Amino acid sequence: MLIFLLRRFAVMILTALCLTYIVFVLTNLEPNLEKLAKFQGSQRMTDVEVTAFLERNGYSRPDYIKYAEWLGLAPSFQATQPDGRITSRCDKGNPDGKATKEAQYCGILQGYWGQSTVFKQDVASIISIRLGLTGKLMFFVTLLMVPSALIIGILAGMREGSRTDRSLSSVSILSTATPEYVSGVIFITVFASSVVGLKWFKGTATSAMDTATFENFFLPVLTVALYAMGYIARMTRASMAEVMTAQYIRTARLKGVSFRNVVLKHALRNALIAPFTVIMLQFPWLLNGVVITETLFNYKGFGWVLVQAAGNNDIELLLGVSVISVVVVLVTQLISDIGYVYLNPRIRL
After folding, report:
1. Where are the alpha helices (DSSP H) in 159-246?
2. What is the pLDDT of residues 235-250, one digit of tens each?
3. CATH number for the 123-348 domain, one of 1.10.3720.10, 1.10.246.90, 3.10.20.30, 1.10.10.410?
4. Global pTM?
């Protein structure tokens, strides 16, 4: 197990470097850098002025050098401004205009994630706050989504082809086929607006950022959970139905073991291997797939920050969001592989 974990960590680091480098190159394309120059300078800047700005601030250097600087493996570029000031990535320039003699390393490895050009704040502080808000949303979504999906899938798969199976499978297919922007609008129209008259909940979750209540937080939680719930239920149902036809299940039934004990003690653990993978893969989706829901309910979490960074060409913030997304995907896959061994010890061989 230790060798397996060491190998996986090595692969995770290599994968993270490759993915973040791809995102870094895409965000540092020439059109994006031109927009950044005009955003920090003036919209009336000419092409010559844009080129001079990019060269003066180090944006015209090769991508691999800028990437090493962003990681903190290379010294920060020191730019000489028109007024004589010397600035660097971390804004550690000297007021007297004299260049520092010692190379300054300031990147991800040193804990500096850059400065947001839109919010004018440190990227790490922005992401930590917004990630916490989305984490709260994910927590309640998981509490609703996972138990409900497993119960529906197990009940449907215990007796394949029965009326219960057909009914629950229809509900699962319907929930999966309905995207969040459709179900969210329906929920707001029916339960939160004055169109129907059922003002049971609030149509916005802005107040839930401070204090989450059933009234202001249930609709966004239900909107996110409903879409993934059907997919997990379908996978659980298929896995449960396959296990229930296995030879050892038939042997247990012939020995007189009750149907309840057959399901709980023999079938359930093996049937959860495939759904466990699906459940773990939902966490990266929950982190980045809540963009529509957070925008629809005006909940300013991680997905909302992603929209703001992409819409305003905030390169540093986009890179920070990409790091978090990559780490979440890799960590959840690692936990999924470790969970395999717990659910089925034969996988160790």
Report:
1. 163-177, 180-191, 214-244
2. 888 888 888 777 877 7
3. 1.10.3720.10
4. 0.78
